[in-house]
Amino acid sequence: MQLESLYQEVILDHYRHPHHKGLREPYDAEVHHVNPLCGDEVTLRVALKDAGGEPVIGDVSYDSLGCSISQASASVMSELIIGKTVPEAMTVADEFLRLMQSQGELEPDEAVLGDGVAFAGVAKYPARIKCALLSWMAWKDATAQSVEAQSVEAQAVEAQAIEGAPDE
Amino acid sequence: MTLDVARVRKDFPILDRQVRDGQPLVYLDSANTSQKPRQVIEALDEFYERHNANIHRASHQLGEEATAAYEGARVKAAGFIGARDESEVVFTKNISEGINLVAYAMGNARSGRFQLGPGDEIVITEMEHHSNIVPWQLLCQRTGATLRWFGVTDDGELDLAGIGELITGRTKLVALAHQSNVLGTINPVRLIADRAHAAGALVLVDAAQSVPHMPVDVQELGADFLGFTSHKMCGPTGIGVLWGRRELLDELPPFLGGGEMIESVWMDHSTFAPPPHKFEAGTMPIAEAAGLAAAIDYLTEIGLDNIRAHEHELIGHALGALDGVDGLRVLGPADPGRRGAAISFTVDEVHPHDVSQVLDEHGVAVRAGHHCAWPLHRRYGISASTRASFYLYNTTAEVDTMVDAIRQAQRFFGGT
Q1: Residue B372 annotated as catalytic
Q2: pLDDT per residue over B356-375, tens digit each?
Q3: What is the pLDDT of residues B218-265, one digit of tens each?
Q4: Of B372, B373, B376, B399, which residue is the catalytic one?
Q5: Are residues B79 and B18 in the same domain?
Q6: Which residue of A has its CA nearest to B357?
Q7: Are residues B137 and B199 in the same domain?
Q8: Which of B21, B134, B349, B353 to mutate to test the interface with A (most CBs of A within 10 A)?
Q9: Which of A 50-89 lie inside 8 A of B, CB atoms?
Q10: Which domain holds residue B354?
Q11: Cβ separation A131–B353 shorter than 8 A
Q12: pLDDT tier for residue B50 given thresholds of 50, 70 and 90
């Protein structure tokens, strides 16, 4: 039976016991994404953390409605992403996208994807790929908005600093 | 005469297929698109192998034959739904295009009964397919008219309590489904049409889910426009029918401009062909029309009454069997006599996508999602459902296979 290759135990575990579900404060951006094919929905928040260098994903929280694949994917994604710098996290997201577009031909890299490798079987079911990608796309969108918001804020602070500086 | 399902199944080559590692195909997704009998497939082949040419504009023999096939299909479609004559039958790409045709043409009207503006109202229902919602939303946005709708009751019927307040002198058009593609509910079109006509409004019927499955007569329904689509009634994709009363088609402005729909063209203006050609711009789906004609012949020979009776038995069997599944809730009327051949349901703790995935693993093809009726799903507080839909080739044994597979899905996802 193919079912077990699609619904691996890891996926079912995350589905039954999702991590990081439930919206949390504080956050820098909140997005709402839907899958118009099936009506699955996710509301997702991202909080960035200033760690000196590259901005770090301080928190990802979400509220979602959908099938086991989309629910488990949101859980695995948040688990993988929190604590990584934005560029590191984007690399993971790109790798997950590559896996989903591989039609099942790609051997997933567990070092990069962690529990995300369990979704390799989903890539063989074209109708389910969007389920697996829903929360990742929402995260990318929210992160881009968070980075944007921070840079606007930084510019504002800078502008204020210049304005406030004593005249030469 | 009753329907001999074993004999019918022999007409559908695809039903011999095995899927997902050797499971026999159990196709329960006919409300989405139906399978095609050999007779229709052969009609398409024969058209391309022997008669292919463009219509109405070729003076050679093939052109005559192709035109005869295309216009012959129009005559058949007219007879199939009780139209007064074939000039009332407009071929479209599908029913979505048919509904859009009326909505856009109304938006083009600068005078007369089709002209819309602020204060005018279009009435639809909460159980419509997106195809019978969005074109009216767009029309209202273009014209300033107001969109209103019938709600639905908890048991999946139209809520007619407020009909007197809903259909008034302001109503220009009432658009509703003959049969819901989700709930299966067969709506009281005649009753609503009589109220609409008394108020001076027109009635458009989305018959995509009824025309394939039961005898439909536009006069009995009291419709002014009625649309259906070939691919849900054993015919090919790419062609649908918009029927309209001749005097209305005469008055309705054109929708798409192009070849074939004109009478005469100058550089600064044009005059238009009489209906139905006024609404058929460009080269039409000619082979598909021949295929649709074959589908109409096929269904007529079996008999729409027989198909309806066969499906009634399947629905009764399915409702009974589904009632025995713990945690399963059927949407729509409990009485098989009140509904057509589509049954949607939810299963506690198992998302419709996951139900349909497990069913697919058992060779059972159903549809999961909102079935292009998102507002209706919201009305019932759900985001999606699983839908099984039947046709003349389905058997009670297939229904049982589905019900067994639903129990498998419950076992598979039920663990903790």
Answers
A1: yes
A2: 999 999 999 999 999 999 99
A3: 999 999 999 999 999 999 999 999 999 999 999 999 999 998 899 999
A4: B372
A5: no
A6: A3
A7: yes
A8: B353
A9: 65-69
A10: 5-30+303-414
A11: yes
A12: very high
Give the residue from B19, B32, B354, B359 with the most A CB atoms within 10 Å of its CB, the best one to mutate: B354
Question: At A151, is the pLDDT very low, low, confident or very high (cuts 50, 70, 90)?
Answer: confident
The span from the CA of A135 to the CA of A60, in Å, is 11
Taken in order A110, A116, A121, A122, is the CA torsion positive or negative? Answer: negative
Asked whether the beta carbons of residue A2 and residue B368 sit closer than 8 angstroms, the reply is: no
Per the model's pLDDT, the better-predicted residue between B293 and A149 turns out to be B293
B216, exposed or middle or buried, with CB in 10 Å at 0-12, 13-18, 19+?
buried
- The CATH number that applies at residue B407 is 3.90.1150.10
What does the pLDDT look like over B80-119, one tens digit per residue?
999 999 999 999 999 999 999 999 999 999 999 999 999 9
Domain count for chain B: 2
Q: Which among B368, B412, B415 is the nearest to A38, CB-wise?
A: B368
State how far the Cα of A34 lies from the Cα of B399, in Å rounded to an integer.
Answer: 32
Q: Residue B416: its pLDDT value, please? A: 43
Vertex B136 angle, CA B130 and B140, to 5°: 140
- Give exposure, B265-295, as e/b (b: 16+ Cβ within 10 Å): eeeeeeebbebbbbbbbeebbbbbbbbbbbb
* Least confident residue range of A64-78, A101-115, B70-84: A101-115
Test B353 with A37 for CB contact under 8 angstroms.
no
Q: Tokens in use for B193?
A: 């049409």
Domain presence at residue B36: no
Q: Please, which pLDDT band fits residue A165 given cuts at 50, 70 and 90?
A: low
Question: What is the 3-state composition of chain B as percent helix, strand, coil, each rounded to the nearest 5?
Answer: 45, 20, 40
Q: Which CATH number fits domain A3-151: 3.40.50.720, 2.40.37.10, 3.40.190.290, 3.90.1010.10?
A: 3.90.1010.10
Residue of B nearest to A64 (CA): B383
Yes or no, beta carbons of B369 and A39 under 8 Å apart: yes
Tell whether the model's pLDDT for residue A145 goes beyond 80. yes
Q: Given an 8 Å threshold on Cβ–Cβ distance, is A67 in contact with B374?
A: no
